[in-house]
Amino acid sequence: MYFIYNLIVYITWFHLKIVALFHPKIKLFVQGRSQTFSILKNKIQKENKTIWIHVASLGEFEQGLPVIEKLKFTYPTYSIVVTFFSPSGYEVKKNTAAADAVVYLPLDTRRNAKRFIESVNPVLAIFVKYEIWPNYLKELKEKQVPILLISAIFKKEQVFFKWYGGIMRKALQAFTHFFVQDNNSVALLKSINLNNTTLSGDTRFDRVAEILERDNKLSFMERFKGNKTCFVAGSTWPEDEEIIVKFINETQKHLKFVLAPHNIKMEHIQSLKKSISKKVVLYTEIEHNDISSSEVLIINTVGLLTKIYSYADIAYVGGAFATGLHNTLEPAVFGIPIIIGPDYKGFNEAEKLVAENGILVTGDYDEFTSALGKLLENPEYSKNTGVINSNFVKENKGASIQVMAHIRRLL
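Structure (tokenized):
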């Protein structure tokens, strides 16, 4: 089985190098991996003890960050190495101060796994949520390195629980311990004789809870919002924007609207701006405009959305009409009601908050208008809806504390 798996990996890598000639994101994926070992050589001292954390992309990095920060504080003499699979995560966080070295994870071949583990020489390896790579796990196990999977969530549809998933089940056996999000994951792991589990929840709750402790002040948002009700739509896709823009253009209510699109390429931003009939200002234009008189602010940069949510009276989280729902916990922590599109199944926190009535689901323009209208016209209802969300975050904190308690017993 390992022979077949490795053959597939090599064939995949060969094709990726060809596709990289024509696809910018795949080019980053391929070229970035050619720099991994030189970065490690320059940034990691072999005499230092090293902890390796692997994440798929940006979302998993944010998920693992509470543990990474606690590791850095608790073990200041250790080196922290973070690896990414995806360019969308690596390119944003390659200069983060949370780690001593941030690199792409070389493709999961036996040769790469052996070379990488020898270069990093970790005393502990942590994988976040999923990302199961058989060769890396096999190499770590052979070197008797403790391996944790944190914030893990398993579904019966996954390959681990299929008759043909033998190599992936074997890979799971390398983990020293699983910290999982729900009881279903505990049961599924038990069904394949893996009982080294802790029901700890999701470390993302710890991450978003920490948001409240920082300074979220944005002077431009204070000027823009004034004393008006503010609607913030984050991580929107065209399908979301079509509905929201129609409402903006048709409503007679005196609101302030902030749109933070997922796609901030200039062509899309300009098209979005032209589609709005009310006074619009782009974030990159605020120095030259009186933004207090603008009704719509489009955020055409990254890194501000979480703080902007702190100014929202109502939030919309995009993606559930398109490729997948974005982070609903970031607005939830501020105790505001949230509206989303219809495709939220598989996002545990969204499913729970929909059931608890903290998140309102809309399938079309009429439903969106109805949901938003209900929140705007009934302040008490809006307030209570927001409280459901903030309480949900408070009640689910603590996963990183459980993970750290286990790590202290290992190191």
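The chain has a mean pLDDT of 94. The radius of gyration is 23 Å.
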